[in-house]
């Protein structure tokens, strides 16, 4: 049996980037700095290019970016990192399912490596709208919910195409910071340039859901699909077979039919194969599962042996350490 792998999750509440944000940035940024430097053979974009891109495409985020940069003493590398403009490629797994009966619920598993996982659950008000999100790279997020009841979560889209655009964590963050409904988020996503091929699942408090396919080499596409894994219209990458993206997608559709009206049963299924993974050595282990309730303004972060419930009315700061085994068994 393999030694247990410890993954730390920390929940913080801070309306604007401040001391708590800085402490998290100082703890997590070294790995991101190393990743950017190692995987950007053509060089990083200039700070001017990053700020111009934010002003052009994410004007409501520009002031937040400036504040973050000021907190880190306007370090030039940090300014690039925090903008997520033209980052190197980075791919993950993940499965997402949107349910509407008896209430809207979005369930997602996040499958990746702890090496590039911050584990920070943040309750913030960066742009004036309250957001609870699993943060990524200090300025982005993997998934989250805002006070208006909009939920967003991304998955890798299954192709290696890469181009000029933003990294998906900041795209998801900007959607949550600025949109109130699925329709509004779809319009925004279709206008934002994405550096990689990514999928974004949306669900709002009214039960309206959509998946938006983002790709740098093709126009964005929005579909009213309730499930998404790691491909788009079809599988176009041989590596997709290793993650069983087609099988997982089919299983999600089966869950939708088998557990119609029973979200708890569907959530339980996410904590078992084929949606729960443990191949951390090959960057494909389930680091957490989340169930978002947009009408309640709540989220449950789930593991096999525990859950952490958070919400806008009752947010709990603190730290939890989860023990996972590399050979596939949760401790």
Architecture blueprint of SSEs:
Blueprint: E1 4-13, H1 19-38, H2 47-57, H3 59-71, H4 76-83, E2 95-99, E3 105-112, E4 120-124, E5 131-136, E6 140-146, E7 151-156, H5 168-178, H6 182-189, E8 198-203, E9 209-214, E10 221-223, E11 227-228, H7 240-243, H8 245-258, H9 263-270, E12 278-279, E13 284-293, E14 298-303, E15 306-311, E16 318-325
Parallel strand pairs: 1-4
Antiparallel strand pairs: 1-16, 2-3, 2-11, 3-13, 4-5, 5-6, 6-7, 7-8, 8-9, 9-10, 12-13, 13-14, 14-15
What keyword list fits this structure?
331 residues; alpha+beta; Penicillin V Acylase, Chain A; nine-stranded mixed sheet; seven-stranded antiparallel sheet
**Beta-strand content:** 25-35%
The side-by-side strand order for the widest beta sheet comes to 10-9-8-7-6-5-4-1-16
Classify the fold: give the CATH topology: Penicillin V Acylase, Chain A
Low-confidence stretches: none
Beta strand count:
16
Overall tally of structural domains: 1
The coarse overall form would be globular
How helix-rich are the residues, as a percent range? 25-40%
The helix/strand series, from N terminus to C terminus, equals EHHHHEEEEEEHHEEEEHHHEEEEE
Helix count from the secondary structure assignment: 9
Q: What's the overall average pLDDT, rounded?
A: 93
Largest sheet: 9 strands, mixed
Q: What class would the helix/strand composition place it in?
A: alpha+beta
Q: How is the quaternary structure best described?
A: single chain
Going by CATH, the homologous superfamily would be Penicillin V Acylase, Chain A
Question: In CATH's first tier, which class applies?
Answer: Alpha Beta
Task: Based on the coordinates given, report the CATH architecture.
Answer: 4-Layer Sandwich
